[in-house]
Design goal:
Helices cover 3% and strands 47% of the residues. The chain contains one helix and 20 strands. It is globular and about 50 Å long.
């Protein structure tokens, strides 16, 4: 059943993200498009729909339209708590906007990387970006736009997610390998056994105990995951 249809972009919508919810379970929904713009929408949990400026369901309008990209937007992430939206475009920079539409700064990748493919962000404002396909890299930026560190990666990543506390990064790609990385120093902590096809999507269960991987073959694999065993406090106490 289609509950609502909203219009705003002038070309294909290429990516979508949502923020964390507030006490009323409302959140921001952010969309990126081939028309080089990013739009911020307000999802109202009580109405179960996206509302317009005057609170109407019949005429939903974006809260803000973010500009600055010169090519199609490829990835986007939003934080309601920090009040920022980070978006990347094909062969272009990642831009940080406020959720009201102000362009704050640009994230410049190290050479020779150019095209951001996936973006994720911790609650503390650390921004992780996966660049390029052939010679890919994982880059970590601070909220002020400073490049903190970057690590080359030998797989064509297809998906990238963070743990709830923002300390661990999970990656999957064409090699069929799911990796667990530590965020603050970008070190690989664990590699799961190789799957029989490309990993196309990753998701964590609500209790953060199971990691689910969707494969190109249509299979779904569920891994056990225990973040505590990699936590320094746990290691110092029990080893």
């Amino acid at each position: 059943k289609i509950c609502q249809v909203i219009f705003g972009h002038f070309d294909v919508v290429t990516c979508i993200a949502r923020s964390e919810c507030n006490i009323n379970q409302d959140c921001y929904v952010v969309t990126g498009s081939k028309d080089c713009t990013v739009m911020v929408w307000h999802w109202n949990a009580k109405q179960q729909s996206i509302l317009g400026d005057n609170g109407s369901i019949e005429n939903p309008t974006p809260k803000a339209t973010l500009t600055g990209h010169q090519s199609e937007v490829t990835c986007v992430v939003v934080s309601a708590e920090l009040g920022i939206v980070v978006s990347g475009s094909n062969d272009g920079p990642c831009l940080i906007h406020s959720n009201t539409g102000d362009l704050l700064r640009s994230l410049e990748p190290p050479k020779p990387y150019s095209s951001p493919r996936f973006i994720t962000m911790t609650r503390e404002g650390y921004i992780l970006v996966n660049y390029d396909k052939a010679k890919s890299a994982i880059c970590s930026f601070g909220i002020n736009g400073k490049l903190l560190r970057h690590v080359p990666h030998n797989d064509n990543a297809q998906c990238m997610i963070l743990s709830r506390d923002g300390q661990y990064l999970m990656l999957g790609g064409d090699n069929g390998i799911v990796e667990v990385w530590r965020v603050h120093d970008l070190t690989i902590l664990y590699t799961y056994p190789t799957c029989d096809s490309s990993v196309r999507s990753l998701a964590l269960s609500h209790d953060q105990r199971y990691l689910m991987a969707g494969l190109a073959t249509g299979c779904l694999i569920v891994f056990n995951i225990d973040f505590n065993k990699w936590h320094h406090e746990f290691q110092e106490r029990y080893q």
